[in-house]
Every structure is written in C-alpha cells, then in structure tokens.
C-alpha cells in the first residue's frame, strides 16, 4: 500500500497565511531569502503599527476622544505582536513540530479505522480554521471600507484614513492620501493575519495530536487480536506462539506513546505563554468588542467590524480551548485502550507477565494526562472557555452600568 499524501483544507489554509509572513519551512532553499524578506517586512509593519496605535491612543486620550475604541484596537494589536515575537523566539521548535507532523502524522499509512479517525480530525480542523479565517478577513475588510462610507457622508474634499495618523501633513489630498492608505492596509493585513494564523495552526496540531492518541488507543485495544480474532477457546499453544509478537507490538506502541508525550511537551513549550496571554486578555477584549457593538455610537461599518471581531474572538477562544480539551481527554483514554486489550487470555509465562506489567505501566502513565497549560498555572480546557466568557460578561455589565450612570449625570 502506497503512502497517500494527506490533503487538508485547514493545513493548506494555515500554511498559506504562515508563508505570507515568512514562518513556514519549505524544502526549497531558493525560498529562504524570500522568507527572510517577508519576516523582516512583518516585523517592520508590526513596529510601525505599534507606533501608530500608541500615538493614536495618546492623542485620543489627550483630546477626550473615543478611548475605548482605540483601546480595542491596541489590545488586538498587542495580541498579534506578542504572538509573533513568541513564535520567532521558538522558531526552531515551531517549525520542527510542523515538519514532524508532516512526516509522522499526515503522510503515514493507516488502516480503515485509523483513516476514519484522521478524517474526523480533518473535518473539525477545516470547520474551525475556515470559520476563524473568514471572520478575520471580514473584519479587516470592514476596516478598509469604513473610510469610503465616511467619505460618502462628508464633503468630497474630506477624506479619512482607516486609522488616525496625527501628523501635520495634508493626508486628505492626493497623492499623500493614497500612499498612506495603502501603507495602513499593508500594516492591517499583517496584524490581522498574525491575530489568528498562529491559533489556526495550533488548532490543527493539537487536534491531530489528540487524533494520534485516539489511534494509539485503538491499536492498544486490538493489540492481542489476530486475523481471525482470538477467542477464549483458542489453544494455549497457539497463544504461546503469538505472545512474542504481541509483546513486540506493545513495545512499539509504548514508544509511540512516549513520542506523543514529547510532542505535547514541545507544543506546550511553544504556546504556553501565548495561551496565558490569551486567557488573560480575551475576557477584556470580548468586553470591549461588545461595548463597541451594543453601546457605542459609531459608523455602521465600524460596528460591523466589531461584530466580526466579537464573533471571531469567541470562536478563536473556543477553538484553542476545545483543542486543549481534546488532548486532555484522549490522552487519558489511552488507559481504557490498554485495559481493553485481550490480556486476560494471555498465558501466564514470562512474556505474558511482562506484557501485563507493561500494560499496567501504560495505564498508570496515561492517568497523568497530557495537557496544555497557561504557562504552568492551570490546564486549559472547555471549563476555561466558560470562565472567560463569564468574566467578560461581568466586565461588560460593569462597563454598561458606568456608561448609564455617566449619561444620567
């Protein structure tokens, strides 16, 4: 049976965005210069975006402008910048994880049941990655078209940019306006991609890691099966002949289990700080996005962009908490697979006792579940998702009460 090339929409989409920012490893050495150039352009655009948004926050606060709107943009930018510099700091581990999964997870021979497991992982990743990417692109488009709607409402001589520059230049006239508009759109493109692309590839890697735990559980469950299925009436002599083969297979599965644990540890090393920052910031972000959607008086296109940002933040939060929860759940289920092996009919000779003892060790190790944590403070699961949403609703209620009090006064 030939090895089939694993084609996945989520992987292709994630790799497309990562290639655009120069953080995807290819075997072609000719593209190395292009990757370095894109990476340098990415860092330059992020630094310029920080300066623009920082000045915008300062002058908006100084002139009593819409500070909450600027804070929403600044927090989103901060998330993107932090993700980029953390991934660059762990660039070798990050690219190594992708290469390892390409070689050992996606382009490997599987039987029918294992392909079904991989197919279910593929469907989940496709839904998550496509949905988050589409919402992120729609939010960026809303930022782009907002100046055109504003221009239609004002005089023809007044043109606005997507973001305030606070420069003593005639930015509303040609060609300054067109140059600055294109420059801001380029910065918005890179900031927007970095906001969700690293979470997309994290979702793909975590869910496929959980899928490998499911495959290993299935293999352990069928460890002592033969082509005709072992029954209790099978003679002891035939089992004696097969016990060595079963024990050899178990040793290979134990090595596979250790490899999956190591991959989980590497994924934890790369993403643990990103997860912590997202857990801390997402509740505030969701609160601010909700304020811009339901309470703020702004242009329709601005409100539309924050609708997409609000939905995208909730989807992104669910994506990485669900992925972490899958890793925890299916790594724990390895114990069920080991116990479900037909070890009870194995002979009580030396190989049979060793097989039983090794299965006990697998069960004991799997009870120490693999988990992805927020910098070691706590494991992330779906309970984290509900906690963050609850905190965000509390922040929003407090903010709404304060706004109503200020209006009454």
Low-pLDDT stretches are 1-5, 228-233
Average pLDDT for all residues? 87
- Helix segment count? 11
General shape = elongated
Number of strand elements: 0
Helix-and-strand structural type: mainly alpha
Distance between termini?
A: 76 Å
- Portion of residues in beta strands equals under 5%
The percentage helix is over 70%
Radius of gyration: 26 Å
Topology pattern, helix = H, strand = E: HHHHHHHHHHH
Q: What's the story with the biggest beta sheet?
A: none
What does it look like?
By secondary structure, the protein is mostly helical. The chain is built from 11 helices and no strands. The termini are far apart.
Quick synopsis:
By secondary structure, this protein is mainly α. It is 77% helix and 0% strand.
SSE layout:
Layout: H1 9-20, H2 32-62, H3 67-89, H4 91-106, H5 112-153, H6 176-221, H7 236-294, H8 300-332, H9 334-340, H10 350-366, H11 382-408
Q: Which descriptors apply to this entry?
A:
409 residues, mainly alpha, 0% strand, disordered N terminus
């Amino acid at each position: 049976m030939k090895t089939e090339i694993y084609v996945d929409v989520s992987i292709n989409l994630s790799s497309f965005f990562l290639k655009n920012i120069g953080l995807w490893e290819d075997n072609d050495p000719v593209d190395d210069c292009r990757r370095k150039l894109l990476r340098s352009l990415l860092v330059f655009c992020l630094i310029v975006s920080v300066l623009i948004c920082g000045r915008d926050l300062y002058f908006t606060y100084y002139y009593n402008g819409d500070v909450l709107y600027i804070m929403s943009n600044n927090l989103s930018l901060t998330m993107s910048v932090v993700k980029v510099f953390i991934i660059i700091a762990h660039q070798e581990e990050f690219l190594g994880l992708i290469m390892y999964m390409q070689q050992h997870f996606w382009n490997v021979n599987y039987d029918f049941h294992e392909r079904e497991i991989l197919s279910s992982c593929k469907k989940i990743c496709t839904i998550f990655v496509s949905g988050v990417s589409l919402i992120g692109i729609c939010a960026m488009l809303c930022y782009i078209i907002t100046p055109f709607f504003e221009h239609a409402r004002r005089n023809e001589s007044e043109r606005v940019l997507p973001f305030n520059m606070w420069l003593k230049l005639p930015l509303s006239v040609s060609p300054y306006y067109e140059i600055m508009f294109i420059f801001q759109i380029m910065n918005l493109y890179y900031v927007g991609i970095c906001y969700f692309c690293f979470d997309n590839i994290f979702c793909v890697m975590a869910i496929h890691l959980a899928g490998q735990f499911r495959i290993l559980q299935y293999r352990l469950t069928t460890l002592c099966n033969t082509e005709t299925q072992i029954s209790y009436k099978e003679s002891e002599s035939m089992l004696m002949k097969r016990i060595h083969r079963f024990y050899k297979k178990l040793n290979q599965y134990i090595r596979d289990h250790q490899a999956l644990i190591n991959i989980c540890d590497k994924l934890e090393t790369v993403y643990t700080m990103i997860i912590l920052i997202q857990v801390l910031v997402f509740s505030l972000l969701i609160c601010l996005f909700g304020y811009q959607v339901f309470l703020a008086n702004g242009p329709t296109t601005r409100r539309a962009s924050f609708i997409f940002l609000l939905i995208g933040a909730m989807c992104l939060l669910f994506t990485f908490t669900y992925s972490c929860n899958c890793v925890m759940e299916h790594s724990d289920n390895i114990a069920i697979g080991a116990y479900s092996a037909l070890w009870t009919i194995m002979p009580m000779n030396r190989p049979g006792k060793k097989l039983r003892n090794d299965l006990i060790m697998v069960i004991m190790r799997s009870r120490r579940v693999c988990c992805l944590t927020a910098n070691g403070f706590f494991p992330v699961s779906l309970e984290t998702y509900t906690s963050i949403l609850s905190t965000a609703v509390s922040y929003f209620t407090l903010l709404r009460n304060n706004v109503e009090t200020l209006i009454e006064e």
